[in-house]
Each structure stands twice: as C-alpha cells, then as structure tokens.
Amino acid sequence: MDNIIPLKDTSLDETFSKYEAKFKALADQKRLHILNLLCKQESTCVCDLSELIEMPQSKLSYHLKILLDAGLILKETKGTWSYYRINQEEINHLLSPELCCLFRPSCC
Amino acid sequence: MDNIIPLKDTSLDETFSKYEAKFKALADQKRLHILNLLCKQESTCVCDLSELIEMPQSKLSYHLKILLDAGLILKETKGTWSYYRINQEEINHLLSPELCCLFRPSCC
DNA sequence: TAGTTAAATCAAAAAAAATTGATTTATTTT
DNA sequence: AAAATAAATCAATTTTTTTTGATTTAACTA
Q1: How many angstroms separate the CA atoms of B29 and B32, rounded?
Q2: Residue B42's pLDDT band (boundaries 50, 70, 90)?
Q3: B80: burial class by Cβ within 10 Å (0-12, 13-18, 19+)?
Q4: Residue B73 forms beta bridges with which residues?
Q5: Who contacts B95 (Cβ-Cβ below 8 Å, separation ≥6)?
Q6: Angle (CA) A23 B75 A11, round 5°
Q7: Closest nucleotide to residue B48 (Cα to C1')?
Q8: A55/A41 Cα distance (integer angstroms)
C-alpha cells in the first residue's frame, strides 16, 4: 500500500507541466503571427502560409509542429498537402476573451 | 513625406512582441508554481518563498525578475525585504477565467 | 560597531530552443 | 514513367535561456 499520502501534489505538477507546453508554444512572435494568420484564413496549406509569412518551409514546419503538439492548431492532410487551422476551442479555454480576439475571426 | 503607407503593420508586430514577453514568463513550470503560491499568500518575501518552493535564493530572484518584468507580479521593498504579490489585473487580462482560477485566491 | 541577514547581480557553464540547408518520402503533374 | 512539388525530418550550428555559486550592497540585530 504505497503512495497513500503523496509527498507532493503530483496532479498540480502535471497541470503546470501541461500549461508550460502551451505557453511555450505561445511564447514566440513568429508563432503568434502564424496563429493570427490562421484565424483569418479558415484552413491553409504550408506552402501558402510560407509565402504569406515569408518564412522558409522547413522553419515554418518546425513552428507549426510546436503549435500542433501544444494543441493550439489542428492539421488535416489531403494528399501531399497539409492544411492547418486554429483550434478555437483550445484557444478559448486558455486565453482571456479580450486576447482571444487576436486569434479569433470576426470578433470584436 | 515618408512612411505614409507602411510596408508592414508595425503595431501588430509590437502587439506580438508584447505578448511574447508575457507568454515567455508563463512558459515555465517553476514560474507557474511561483504564481500559484503567490496567489495563496497575499504578499511574500523572497526568503519565505525560497523555503516554500525549495529553490535557492539566486535562482528564485532570477525567476521573480522575469515575472516582474512581464508585469505578472508586483514588488514592494521594505528595508532589506522584498515583498512580491500577484498582479491580478494583468493575469485577468491575459488568461481565461477558467485558467485565472489557478492564479487567483478563493476562486472556483 | 561588528556580525548577520535579505536580496540583487554577475560571470561561467550547462541546457534548451531556433535556424539553416540538405535529404527524404509521398504525391501530383506533364 | 519522368519531372516537379509539398511537407516532414535530420544533423550541424547558432542563439537564447537557465543554472550555479560567488560577490555585492544595503539594512537589520546583538
């Protein structure tokens, strides 16, 4: 019968760890810019986004993966193309209504 | 007559830059833990916090400075002591009501 | 006043994250 | 089928952030 009285609050640690990943994903100008563009675009493929944001493809893919892993965006693959869009629900759970406006189409 | 039609939206860049700093401050487990503790503590000096969180003083001061520079906490100095407390207003502007609960005393 | 304590800062080292250009895999087009 | 395109991944490098322990400055305390 171990761990009846845990020495530390593990669930709180896990909570912090979870949000750390999400805030890390948000903690970058380029990624905030990507999120802002994805808002206005419905669903966009990497090559179009790459032109829009003026960023080389491999670099963009790197940043998209970080946003995807954090659950802030969603991906749908059609053939060779990957279409990304914002995960509005997740953004809404995370950010203030006021801030959501930066990352929500036709709000405010 | 320069810059009548700016090539880029500078104000949006500035906005992203501002939030980048704030999210960077939030993008760390230890700092989230500090914020959570400061919520429950009213106002706390570094030495007490250092014991609570089991973190050496210089390391704690480093992280407190990051939170302070981002405007997420406030500092008041009394003699040799520095008392830190959460900047509730700023947190509320930034995070969802649901998330604010993690960093707000007696909420939820 | 001398000794102690609080907390910020510093410089060096370690760790983590970002950038770059090339490669790979799969798909589409000609 | 061959050439071209989309996008993920990789390895090497660069940049940024964090950690560590020591030092400094100021203010308490005995």
Answers
A1: 5
A2: confident
A3: exposed
A4: B86
A5: A94, A95, A96, B103
A6: 40
A7: C6
A8: 17
Chain A, residues 25-44, CB within 8 A of chain B, namely: 26-29, 32-33, 36
The residue ranges of DSSP E strands in chain B, in sequence order, are 44-45, 73-78, 81-86
Residue ranges with strand state E in B9-59: 44-45
Q: pLDDT digit of tens for each residue in chain A (108 aa)? A: 444 444 456 789 999 999 999 999 999 999 999 999 999 888 999 999 999 999 999 999 999 999 999 999 999 999 999 999 999 999 999 999 988 888 887 665
Q: What is the pLDDT of residues B7-21, one digit of tens each?
A: 456 789 999 999 999
* ipTM entry: 0.90
For residue A102, the chain B residues in CB contact (below 8 A) are 15, 19
Scan for tokens 């003083």, then name that residue: B57
- Listed in sequence order, the residues at least 6 apart from B42 whose beta carbon sits closer than 8 Å to its beta carbon are B85, B105
- Domains, chain A: 13-101 (1.10.10.10)
